[in-house]
Amino acid sequence: MTTTTTKTKNSSTTRVGTVTSTTTSTYTFTTTSQVTKTAKPIPIPEPTGNPDKNVCMEPHCILLSASILSSLDTTQDPCENFYEFTNNGWLKANPLPADKSSFGNFEALALQNKQVIQRFLEPSHGSLALLDSYDQETLRKLRDMYSSCLNEETLDKDGNAPLVHIVKSIRSFFREEDTFVDATKHKKKSKGLTAALAFIHSRGIGSLFSFNIEGDVGTDPNHMVLWFSQPEFGLPSKEYFQEKPIRKLYQAVIERFLTILDDEQDANIMDTSHKQEGFSVQQEGEKMWPPWPWPPWDEDGDDDDGDTRPPKRRNLHKLAKKVVDFESNMAEASLDLDVLFQDPIATYNPFRPSEVFDALPQVDFETYFSTFTPRRFPNRIIVTHPPYMRALAKILDETPDEVIESYLVVRTALAMSPYLGMNTDAWQAQRTLLEALTGIKKGAVGDRGEYCVGVVEQTLGFAAGRFFVNETFGGESRTKGTRIINDIVKAFKASLAGIDWMDEESANAAAEKADAIRVKVGYPLSPDTEDSRSIARYYSSVKISATNLFDNILNAQSSEIFKSWLNLEMTRDPESWDMWPSVVAAYFKPPANELVFPAGLLQSPFFSHDWPGYLLYGAFGQAVSHELTHAFDTAGRLYNQHGKLEQWWTNSTSEGFNKKQDCIVEQFSNYSIDDGKGGKIYLNGNLTSGENIGDNGFIQAYRAWKAQYDDSLEAGGEYLLPGLNYTREQLFFIAFGRLWARAMKPAEAVQRVRTDPHSPSRYRVDGTVSNIPEFAQAFKCRQGARLNPPREKQCIFWG
Questions:
Q1: What is this structure's pTM?
Q2: An example Gene Ontology cellular component term from the record (predicted)?
Q3: I need a labelling partner for 66 at 20 to 30 A (CA). Which of 132, 198, 273, 707 fits?
């Protein structure tokens, strides 16, 4: 099919990926917006009590009120279009930047956090001499990583040489003696494939399959074992491999990579004295043929007699097509995303190592494992989708070595070309694919400093997090954030008795699980953000140069991979985090039964320790209630209070849950987005069911706010803001709705509907409040309004 094909609702959408835990990245939510204006402003109920009573007129209150007012569009009826009512003002004032495919309040806060980090990355911010020796070492690495990224002159001078160097190593490994026979198993193994795979996997570059270290949720969730899963692919989901325009573009990009790397190696442009620490690139030689943009001929003329390309170019053209076919076959064999995300029982398949070795005989796993120097050899491997493993063995058997080698080269080029100079052909090739998949304006490149701070976070996130926390996370933030979390857990437990599909036995078990949840707020203690020595030691193996970005990235990625493998067959570190402190995100991790809220999220417009309660519980409370509900959603409910996969609900409760889930699936499967080409794409309600159930948990934040309201009011914690002619109840919901403002390119929206388990932002708002009767009561919505449907049509999940 093509990208202009109209999708029908309830169609299956899939994504290729690897998950070993349920995480919620709150900065990846989506939306498309169609503004509908009414003739005049919608009348809003008057505020509760005297508008002049308890109104805060301090500067921070005036600014907060102005921020809320500026985001609203009062020409919209909140009972019909709450998303537009709470966000059209913000969207109008914040048009989508040309260099971004998506931008909203989550991204705006992430940018604000980057600016905090950027200040201490600049040498002018302060002298290293003022810090202790460990912080000096850490900050020097942070600044060197940042400097190497900013140094575009050096990046352009090096050209494609860093990529050529690593590709030469891959090809050298792959072309080692092709095969040998395992005398004990009489299986044919590829020494070259094993060596090449171990080389690129040890540098954080994915291909063929992936390994992760996570708890054995079937026996002991705190015992860390090896998980085997499918890799990510060059296109985001299976659908893209079936769309002719995208497939042709992808093939052209692959062909370009192969041509670049072939030409530069043939021309021997790298100085023979080249070393890993730096590149010396000769400038002689003719300019590569053909020029970019690519390709200059008819892409459909694969094997025409009139093809005038040189023989070598014709061969590369055909080779690129074979690589796409090879990867497409792997993608087709991979597990659909709705199962990967929503069914932890289906993805838990324990194998003895020997069974995995026999199923995929082309890889010498004993040699592969030795590359990562684990403390212990794995005695158990969890396979997320055994059919993929077996299909991969068959695909490898049927694929020529030249194609497999080229696939490994292309995977490396796609992963690493973003760290080359923007004037290189390799950078431009991957950029062309990115622009097509996300809708970013061609040639629009964002601020280099912003990008480079992102590189620093990506590679040295816990180090940057130490300095970020010191500058942003003071006062009562941690204490108040933790209190709100505990209040919402308490409200959840109190609501269990009123849930019509849950019996008493299951409710008691759910309360036990809620009590057992570990709550982490702000920053990790492993590595210990408060301890300069702990952070320095964590990154002691990472070698950073002020001039060599490419090697810096490889070194940092490799360090993380090797640290991960050291945990194999060990006990889970209870203080470790999956995110660094500056991330605008939160997550619930079922095997660890923990809720995690980084300091990066506990910032305005999501949190401020001096806000009134109705805003705190409406904004930050949304994130808390959402993540807490993940402990009891489609996947989370299958883990007990210890993080073990177990049937801990009664059969009748499980049946009741399934009926409620079917309601959610049907509701969201009827929502659609504009594909940007005149068609509609409907949401996959199965794929998004877990996140939608999590969003419906927002009612717990409302209950928690109400439960503490009287005490908070008496203590002055529910003060009013000037100029806001809304009740506190209305402002509670407004605080929630305005979080989700987001503009997005149609291409990006399509990709997310296909691959993201979160619904588009519009439906995260309107779909959620339509299932909360308290919303309709707060805004006095007429019966039958779009967001106040009849009770029998609401999916009221949590009582």
A1: 0.89
A2: plasma membrane
A3: 707
